[in-house]
Structures are given as structure tokens and as C-alpha cells.
Amino acid sequence: MSTDEILISACMIVRDEEEFLEGCLLSIKDAVDEIVVGDTGSTDRTRDIARDLGARVYNIPWNDDFSAARNQVLEQAKGAWILSIDADERLRAISRSRIELLLKNPSNIAYYVLMHPMRRWTGMWVIRLFRNDPRIRFKGIFHESLWEGLQKALSSENKEIGYSDLFLDHLGYDIDQSEKLMRNLSLLLREIERDENNAYSWAHLGSVYEDLGEEARAEDAWKRAIEVVREKKHVHVHEIYSYICYIEWRLKHGKPVKRLLKEAIDYSLDNPHLYWLKGRLLMEENRYDEAIPFFERLISWGEKQDFNRVSVCYEICIFNVKAYDSLATCHFRLGNYPESRRYFRLAEKFAAGTMEYKVKKQLCEAMMEAERQNAGLVE
Hints:
CATH class of the largest domain: Alpha Beta
Radius of gyration: 25 Å
Largest sheet: 8 strands, mixed
Number of strands: 8
């Protein structure tokens, strides 16, 4: 195939990915015209697997900078478009003709792809398909992003970012991440040194410290993340992650969260995770009738599949089994036993075989029978 015929180049950086790489490359082989792999120091069979499946492999020096490595790979791509993908990701089956039709749209300089980061989580829209334009390059040591380069390209041309039919499944978070904690810690500290006003980096740093058992440092990082958010004129939805991490941590440690939660909701009025937290808080305060609308809203989102957001994802269970369970509990506490039984039945549909819901339904029925007997005695 000549260079003129190359429409899509898949680009990735890898290191010791023999467990995942073959599955990734097989998932994209019919969707792209070339695969460009930058290896940052593998000691396993990663390079051989890539070459055996037709990829061009380059040795990329690792300087503790994800953007620098990714950008070196982009320089080797010959296609008109780039599909950025990682070894632990899989492209769901899609016809080549659908992709070609998508890329014929002259008004788009890039496309969002729906990424599912973990099993049992919703998807989130991420920019992974973009024109091979030297202005569009990654920036950021750890949380590398194309956004700055895309904005430069968009401002000079009358183009847009579209939404594609492509779906990616990420498998890496479903395995043990402990080996990456110290690496992530080092890179996050460097990223924060480079940009101390990145709330998302501070929030992620807090989560890493929590996983390492350094609770005081975790709390300090989340507090700093929230300070950064408060100083902004415009808050992006993914920056609310700072509040969510800190609120969840405070709830776990029995600390008050009401003021923080109100502040977060004011920033992000339709954030499903905040609705889940608000409903839980109201339940803990025995304000069951006030909690009910929050769980009903979550169920509505789930029924409409209205939860795929840019750069944000949620556990699917808050839209079904956890919301139904919470509604059932609220109605039980309010003495609405038929409604409670109905919601326990619905929860059971999403947790088939769970004895807990069978027992709770029986309890509701027992309470309903007791009410009927009491009513008969009164008559």
C-alpha cells in the first residue's frame, strides 16, 4: 500500500504488554491501514507479537513523560487520520465502510470515541480519532491530552469535533494496579510541579496516596484539588472528581460532607454521582421522603441510557440495583411496604440469586400482612 492510500494509522506506546497486545492488534487490524508501535523498553515478547501482526515497531526512549513518547510515535504515522489506542484496549467490531464514511465529513478535525473504562461502568466520550496534523500533539507528563493542540487547530479553521460510531473497551483497570502505584505517584508529582493548578492531577494524587495507605496526604491532596476548582471561573465536569473523591473518603471516615456536597452540586447540577451521594446522605439523616426523588432520577437516567458524558463515567449499578435497593429501603422506613416490595423485586432482577432480596421481600409481605390483621382488629 502506498503512502497516498493510508487513511488511518493506529498509534500506541507499549512496554511489557504481551498479555494484552495480541488482542488489541487483532481488534483493529481490519479497521486501520497501518499500526505504529513505540516500545519504551519491553523485556517480554511484546516487540515480536507486534511485528508478527504487521506493526511497525520503533524503540522509544522512556523519559517519564507519556506525551513525549506518544508524540514520537505520531511522527512516524503516515495516515491521514490517527487512531490512538493502548494495548489493554479493544476496538469493538465495526465495518471499514462505516469508518470511511465517517471520515469523509470535511467539517470534523477529530472525533469522540465511546470508551468503557471498566466492566460494569458506563462509557465516556474521549478524543481518540483525529487528523494527522502536526499541531495536534499530546501535552502533559501523565494525564496526557490533545486538547490544547486541538484548540489551536480549531481556532484557525472552521472545523469541529464530531461523535463517532467507534467503541473501545479498556481491560487494564480490571486487573491489579498495585505495581503501577509508585510509578503513578512519581509522574503525578512531576505533573503537578509542571502545572500546580491541575485539579484532576491533585485528585488522582489523593487517590494514589489513599491506595498507598497515606490517608493524611490523600486528604491534603483532595483539599488542594478543591482549592484549585474554587479559584476557577469555569469548572469542567471532570474536575468535580475532586469533590467526589473527598466526599466519599469523608463519608467512609464518618466526617460531615453536607457543605462540600452542596458546593459540588452547585457546580454540576446534573451529575449522577452527586445525585447518588445526595440520596445516601439524606437516607443517613433519616430524611427518606426527600431522598426518594434523587434515586428516582438515577433510575430515569438509567432507563434512558442518558449517562455517557465527555471524560466522565459512572458505576452502572447506581442507575439500577443500588437505586432500586435505596428506594425500597426508603419506602420501607416510611411504612410504604407494597412500594418497598416492588422495588426490592426490581433490585432482585439486577442481582439474580441474591438471597438478601428474597428475605427483604418476605419481610415486606409480613409487614403488609400485619397491617391487614391490625386493620381487621380495628374494624
